[in-house]
């Protein structure tokens, strides 16, 4: 491992996400409400401005704000957490 490659314990999800403020949540819902069929809640916001959302059935979606696409990525929060863990391991 060279000096620029982080050790696996140094890689954290916190480097890639932001905690959205109430203003950001309100703006998201106002701007993107046309794309949501059901009530949603924000699970996570990336530093790139994309959102991970959960519907009333627990299904997790990725809202790519660059393309305006809403993709189903996980059937549950547990599956989403597993995908996040795998992605973090791929970064290292």
What labels describe this entry?
single chain, 92 residues, alpha+beta, 5-stranded antiparallel sheet, 2 helices, 5 strands, 28% helix
Describe this structure in words.
By secondary structure, the protein is α+β, with helices and mostly antiparallel strands. It has helices at 22-32, 77-91; strands spanning 17-18, 40-46, 51-55, 60-64, 69-74. A 5-stranded antiparallel beta sheet has the order 1-2-3-4-5. The longest helix is centred in the last third of the chain and has 15 residues, at 77-91. The chain is globular. The mean pLDDT is 81.
- As a percent range, the share of strand residues is 25-35%
Q: How many distinct helices?
A: 2
Rg, rounded, reads 15 Å
Order of helices and strands: EHEEEEH
Uncertain runs: none
Q: What overall form do the CA principal axes indicate?
A: globular
- Count of β-strands: 5
Domains (count): 1
What secondary-structure arrangement, pairings included, does this model have?
Blueprint: E1 17-18, H1 22-32, E2 40-46, E3 51-55, E4 60-64, E5 69-74, H2 77-91
Antiparallel strand pairs: 1-2, 2-3, 3-4, 4-5
């Amino acid at each position: 491992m060279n000096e620029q490659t982080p050790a696996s314990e140094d890689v954290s999800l916190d480097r890639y996400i932001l905690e959205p403020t109430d203003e950001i949540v309100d703006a998201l819902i106002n701007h993107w409400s046309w794309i949501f069929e059901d009530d949603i809640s924000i699970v996570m916001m990336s530093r790139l401005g994309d959102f991970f959302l959960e519907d009333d059935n627990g299904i997790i979606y990725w809202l790519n704000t660059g393309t305006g696409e809403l993709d189903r990525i996980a059937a549950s929060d547990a599956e989403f957490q597993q995908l996040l863990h795998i992605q973090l391991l791929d970064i290292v």
